[in-house]
Specification:
About 80% of the residues lie in helices and about 0% in strands. It has helices spanning about 1-40, 40-65, 70-80, 80-90, 100-110, 120-140, 145-169. Helix 2 (about 40-65) crosses helix 6.
Length: about 170
Amino acid sequence: MEENKLEENKLEENKLENNHINNELLRIVSDKLSKKTLMYSPAQLAYAGDAVYELLVRSYVVNKQDTNVNKMHKITVKFVKAKAQAYLVNMLENELTDNEKRIVKRGRNAKVTSSPKNAELMDYRYATGFEALIGYLYLNNEMDRLMELFNRIVEILNEKDDNNENNRG
């Protein structure tokens, strides 16, 4: 009987040790993935972020707007043009973590290899920082945070549209 109790205790100790080892391995893998993501260049983060953001915006527009494709495209452009992205970075600044601010800054300060079309250089730089943040969150598998920021982006742009309509009327 006492032998069974000792064996049960040993099994329980092994379970706890295995859980600790598994948690440590998960932490190490997660850290390595995070470090890998940080090793992407700002241009690579922005490249991925551009695609992810475009998909989020198009999905939102298709789900929220019952209109023709031409009008959906015009709505999408309001979200994705450099001026809008620069505005969004500015509006989100107080809501970003220190790490997210660093990612935006890295993207904003990245060497520009092409000249922006239909955008001021500073807007283009801030838009690159914005896209780098989106790419970082996506590649780092921070989907909850990505969606939290995207929902906030929708609120900000809707508020801006409402203010513009009220100023016209």
